[in-house]
Amino acid sequence: MSKRKYTKIGIIIVLILVGIFLAFSPNLDKKLEGYLVESETAFIDRVIDGDTVESNGTSIRLLGINTPEKGEKYYKEAKDFLEELVINKTVILKFGKDREDKYGRTLAYLYYNGEDINLKLVEQGYANIYFPSGKDMYYNKFYLAWKECEKNLCEKSDNRCANCIKLINFDYKNEFVSFENICDFDCDLENWEIKDEGRKKFVFLEFVLEKHEHVNILVEEGADNENTLYWNREDYVWTDSGDTLFLRDEEGKLVLWKSY
Q: How would you label 172-206 residue by residue, b for 16+ Cβ within 10 Å and e otherwise?
């Protein structure tokens, strides 16, 4: 057998062994994370809200998540939960591709005693996933945590119309959403809301979706009519890099969600 054939066989064997290692190494992501992610430590002396802390006067915005704003349901619970985890403790900050946001805040994933603090907020239903700059190496585990979450922000609606309203079109590129009422009775959607991963919110005002009818929501300036409502904004809602649509009932409970 020629040296060239031996070389080819050797390469194939190496590739097979690498494939086996990747398939059966459950801690590989963590190992790679340790090598690839820049990090430093910080002493947390203040918690501003559920997704922002301070260290020696520097604001740190937690990556991968968004928690309720002041005045919204679960705002205090999210803040209290984060305080319990990190206040007056030294944590490890792990950074993504952007070190700061437009407000000058440091962007980081927080770790304490090996636990991903940002992820824990999602697991407990105090935060939804939030990746405005695009999906990174952490996205999959955050997505799965949200998908498996069943309490607080993840609590399913018990409204009788929760199983009636179906998302039939979500054209994020053209800022267009459409829902249909598949039930044999009308559904009052007053004070139901559509939300993105961040702060953008659309609230249904005195609106009833009749049985077997649909409604379109367009992100542009316009006057509402029978089947079309306008999310009157001058800027965009759905980000090209990936986002999530959340539909909640009048009590803030989750009716449905869709990520892309």
A: beeebbbbbbebeeebebeebbbbbbeebebebee
What domain range is 128 assigned to?
28-153
pLDDT at 37: 63
Tell me whether residue 23 is in a domain. Answer: no
pLDDT computed for residue 7 by the predictor: 52
- Taking phi over 0 as left and psi of -120 to 50 as alpha, with beta for the rest, 174 belongs to alpha
Active site residues: 61, 69, 105
Radius of gyration of the chain (CA): 23
Residues 97 and 93: their CA atoms lie apart, in Å, by 13
- Running DSSP on this structure, what letter comes out for residue 171? E
Q: Is 56 part of a structural domain of the chain?
A: yes
List average pLDDT for each run of 10 residues in the chain, which is 260 residues long. Answer: 51 53 48 60 98 98 98 97 98 94 96 98 98 95 98 98 98 97 98 98 97 98 94 95 97 98
